[in-house]
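Quick question, first post here. What does this chain look like in 3D?
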Amino acid sequence: MMETAALRLRNSFQLCHADRNGIELKCKDSVIVETEQGIDIARVMKPGKFKDDPEAPSSGKVLRLVNPEDEQSLRQIEELEEKAFAECRDRAAAKNLGMKLVAVRSLFDRTKIIFYFVSESRIDFRELVRELAGVFRTRIEMRQIGVRDQARIVGGYGPCGRELCCVNQRDEFAPVSIKMAKEQNLNLNSLKISGMCGRLLCCLGYEYETYRELNQEMPPSGTAIRCGEEVYYVISTDVLKQTLKIKDNNRFILIGRDDIVKGGGGFSIRPEVLERLRAHEEETEEDDYYEFGESGPIRKM
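> Answer (accepted):
Ran it through. Tokens below.
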């Protein structure tokens, strides 16, 4: 049975499962790994043992732990990447290619240099590749990426003050829709719900299922709720607190989701809540605002 570890390659956001090759590994160890692309440095994310099955196939083999000589070679490779970035950027500009270079990554064994770029259209970069191959004497690969991948590679911090979700928490991008923002009752201003990439925030999907389940039990705004012979209408809801603000012609009342029942094709206030409401009816003046608890109004505004 093959023992594999989950690794994250240098300058990459995707995980790969590599054969441990009998080497004892710990989380966050740096290792030299051989993959289909070539030899590179990776960080151990999960040193646990995985069975070699279709769900977790091996895509490489760990050769050894990183040693001081490897660290010295890594610094030279980083210098090579900086040189390659400047060289490609300048040559692309001279050829008036409509591309924006985002990052450059060289494999540890220097058998390939990968250039990541964004562009609004298809680019004919064959001549550019030939020139770069002549300069660096190695294979050259050009990869066109989207704006979400660009944000992931560049990195940064979101409006929440934390590092961008796409950098650390996602291997593949899950679909995000405006429906998720609506379900969470968020401001639909595009500037409020868009990330650095200009697309909808990844975090909209994190709590979507929870909000969707909670909202199924809450009457939407505008719903009529019977209170004896009177009819109130839902003005707004707080799905996390499970409260509703309802209103008739004269009063606003804040009640909990448990204070109403569904039946007969609509919603109505529970009898015990109705009794408390009637008990304080004489004290209620026009446009008063009451929040009801177990023993009556909690506050009057």
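Confidence is low (pLDDT under 50) at residues 294-301.
The two ends are 70 Å apart (CA to CA).
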